Amino acid sequence: ELTLVEFGGGSVQAGGSLTLSCTASGSPLGDSGMGWYRRIPGHECEMVAITTSDGRTRYDDSVLGRFSISQDKAKQTASLQMRDLKTEDTAVYFCAPNWETGDYDDCSPRSYSKGGFYWGRGTQVTVSS
Description:
Strand order of the largest sheet: 2-10-9-4-5-6
Number of helices: 0
Strand content: over 45%
């Protein structure tokens, strides 16, 4: 069973930077990409950034130019470098495998995704003004 663990969150002031990391273990991801999602309080889960099996990246418009995703397929890890953070980036961030069946909309701590895996606990990012 795939286990996802996110870490690196914290509290920063607006304009600051954080780097989130994720490890995936228990099941091989092969050439699959990975992704970062977030759940803002009172909002639905949203895709933040993903990598694809052929190395492309895609970002939500709200983070384009500020966030950068990277993946190490051999180590089954992914990172999300976040800079120029804004208060609206405050959320719980989750990582996920990218099975390329569509973006997920059900990120929630330790819940089962329609994508066929369990979400991790997530990592809290709080940006203050």
